[in-house]
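User: quick one, fold this
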Amino acid sequence: MAVSDSKNFELDVTEYIEEAYERCGLEVRTGYDLKTARRSLNLMLADWANRGLNQWTIEQTSITTAKGIGDYPAGTLTITVGASGSFSVAETITGGTSSATAKITNLPSSTSMAITIPSGTFTNGETLTGSTSGATTTLSAAVDLTPVQSTIDVLSAVVRRDGTDYGIQRISRDSYLNIPNKTQEARSSQFFVDRQITPVLKVWPIPENSTDVIIFDRLVRMDDSDTYTNTMDLPFRFYPCLAAGLAYYLSIKKAPDRVQLLKAVYEEEFDRAASEDRDRASAQIQPSLAYMRLN
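Assistant:
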């Protein structure tokens, strides 16, 4: 007998739902059975974000700094405009209709501008005016905050200057609050992640030029199960875990007599998958020579 020579087994949302119902001793009968299962699946994905580091959800992002600006989106945030060439980096733009404001951090193309998190909500089609240049342009599309809001956390970051990467240290909210002079300009050496619905990366000292690049690894949300024909955003090692988890979530609503059994299976599957999904680099521990005690 010949082997299949294929390694592309993958389930779509409907197949996961069918598997989960079967583990509950049930079958999918109605459209609502599908709807409630898909809702449970998306809620479970949110719980996975709280359970720890999922390696496949790490994404590297880079942001070009702007002199004098210390707050940046924890992700990519650009707006599409009619033309951007007459604007200046670090100036404030204001919406003529909405009165929303944001600062320009980069001009990546002739029809787009990278900006800070807007204060207010820009309106598609309104006129944007630069505070320094006096230039005007038209907003061509609504500002999409989704790429930034998909950030769960920032793991590590560096500042790249002239081809050399310099590590920057993460600090707490309290440590950032206690920085005496938050407007000091130099090469950034610390960062604080303000984990709002739209997360903000606050760096200090604030950049002294508009050429440094902040490169950071961020944890991002998994893709939602929007349609029943979607496949899921996860490696094959987590297929059994996803099926077991969905069965447990459905049992709470549909098969309460199986809750304890399916919960135990789910936790076992998750622990096994999570222990495999880890960084295999060697850990080294050495004593610090910063402090020496002399008797």
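User: anything notable?
Assistant: DSSP finds six helices and 13 strands in the chain.
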